Protein: Ferredoxin--NADP reductase
Organism: Macrococcus brunensis
Amino acid sequence: MLSQLLDITIIGGGPAGLYTAFYAGLRGMKVRIIEYQDKLGGKVNLYPEKIVWDIGGIAPKPAGEIVDDMITQGLTFEPEVHLSEKVMNITKKEEQLFEVATDQNTYLSKSVIIAIGSGIISPMKLAIEGAERYEVANLHYVVPSLSRFKDRRVLISGGGNAAVDWAYAIAPFAAHVSILCRKDDFKGHEEMVRKLDDRGVEKIMSHSIHSLQAEGDAIESVIIQHCRTREPREIAVDDVIINHGFHMESDLLDQCDIKLERKDNFYIKGHADSSTQVPGVYAVGDILSHDSKVQLMAGCFHDAANAANLAKTYIDPTASEAGTVSSHNEVFKEKNEELLSNML
Ligand SMILES: Cc1cc2nc3c(=O)[nH]c(=O)nc-3n(C[C@H](O)[C@H](O)[C@H](O)COP(=O)(O)OP(=O)(O)OC[C@H]3O[C@@H](n4cnc5c(N)ncnc54)[C@H](O)[C@@H]3O)c2cc1C
């Protein structure tokens, strides 16, 4: 199915893609976002419970709340949003005509903004048949919030820094925390591993999860097994958290028709203004590399405004190079009236 011709197709719905959608809307362009995951927010969704301090002008707060705000802002101008679609190819048909092919559709736009971050990241799932049914209840691959585990018995499987950090952070709230590691030692920082003792975390070495005992959709206990002796043990749980690492997929740029200069076989080697070697194609956020790149969410916002401005003048060379500041921008007039009336 061929789509409507819009001004911009944004590939990736993380911080960079969302702010691009906002800023392009501010500049009066019609955009679509295509995102592989079933929700917007990018890899910030992997650490929703962590407190973020380093976004300019935003007081420290959990990353999950920042994602909510970024989504609200990104949807201000009602972009088309296509979730659970994987972009497979980008083709330049002619100036101001690009085709972006996903595993389900083909989309047309006058320009393309690549905001794919570190590619498609998915947690390594527990290799137990049927385990996915417990994800609705108490099997987690990401810690949604620390308060979720208040007074609960939590088993964490994983030996890396993230698993150790989670055990340390959850322990003060939980009734009991055990951390299970296949190896004889944790990979996590030695000092953090030691601190687990101060918080009463039970460390279970050289064991792995063998099977799950459940009532309905909720796991009630986990059978673990010693990796060498195979001796089993049953642990009663209220929640199970798995941190076995992440699977990363990032072959879009290797296989797509447009050829972009790369750095370290991964990043797009672009410019500080977010332009690439292909007119009409811009790169924003973590995927963009240049000498003065800021690898923070703050850097994504800067890239996004630049890319939207360049897309605007690529599509309409008579347009002004930069947008009007939001405080004095007519596009917000009606929205401001609504906001102000709600404040009174
Ligand atoms: C553990 C951790 C902690 C962090 N803490 C901070 C912090 O405190 N402060 C800070 O400023 N930054 C922090 N960062 C960095 C911050 O998360 C990134 O800079 C930011 O997420 C980059 O946004 P992005 O939109 O460029 O990429 P991403 O967030 O990676 O989003 C890219 C999106 O593109 C999608 N995508 C990729 N390929 C395709 C495809 N082919 N088709 C469709 N969709 C695709 C992905 O699914 C993803 O949703 C942290 C990062 C990590 C990993």
About this structure: The mean pLDDT is 96. Helices lie at 15-26, 63-74, 161-170, 190-198, 252-255, 297-315, 333-343. Residues 151 and 175 are 4 Å apart (CA to CA). The two ends are 47 Å apart (CA to CA).
